[in-house]
Amino acid sequence: MLRYLIFRLAVTLPVLLGVTLLIFSLLRFIPGDPAQMILLTMFDPGATVTDLHVDAAILRKQLGLDEPFVIQYLSWLMEVATGNLGTSFRSRSPIIDELWMRVPATLELAGAALVVMLVIALPSGIAGAVFHRRPTDHMTRFIALIGVSVPNFFLGLVLIYVLSYQLGWFPTLGRGSWSNLVLPALTLGTGLAATTSRLLRTSLLEVFSKRYMVLAEAKGLPRSVIVFKHALRNALIPVVTSFGMVVGGLLGGAVIIETVFSWPGVGRYVVDAINGRDYPVIQAFALLMAVAYVLINVLIDLVYRFLDPRVRIEEGTHG
Fold it and tell me: Does residue 247 share a domain with residue 122?
């Protein structure tokens, strides 16, 4: 297991290096000059366009944007290698400090959305498989189809209109008490629950068709024992395997949801950075997302080996 873990981490290093190059390259194709974007936010009405161009050239030099592409990339890579994510073009503050201030809000939203997802996905997925081709199954599949089809931002606006504007049950914007968390967590968790529910239902149906499940039913074991003790553990293997995409959906979806609900997290910070062409912030966020994906997938592989003993047996045979 340790040898496998070391191997996986070593393999991910070239992947992360390629990600850094791709991020850095794509950002340079975004239209707009970061120096001019920054100056326009503080543009003096009495200044001329010539003044703007002159000041932009000076600022571009200060930010190192006049250097060749290779020099810029290697300089940034050296900083990242030492744990320095850079400095924001706009605020001139260390990015790691600004991210650290906003990470708790994003983790709070992601954690609450994950709870919402599990509360909805597990019962509906199990019910759909147990009551296969019955009204319960049809209802859960229909709800899951709606959850997959409706975009997060649209669902968020609907919930704001119905639960906040019409009924007045929850606050609309900002972060404060638990009531502020309900609408964004429900919006983010519902779409992910639909996908997970469908996957769990399909996996359970496949497990139910196995010979050992037929044998368990022939022995007269209670239905609850068959489902929760024998079937569910095996059915969770593909669900756990897809958990990396779930976490990616939580982090990626948070960017949109935080904007819709004015949630002061990392996602909203990154959206502001994109609008302001703040390259270092965008690069740092994309790199951290890539690292998170890699580490989560390694962790999922380890959990997969715990859930499926056949993988350990095959590793022992080949070893």
Answer: yes
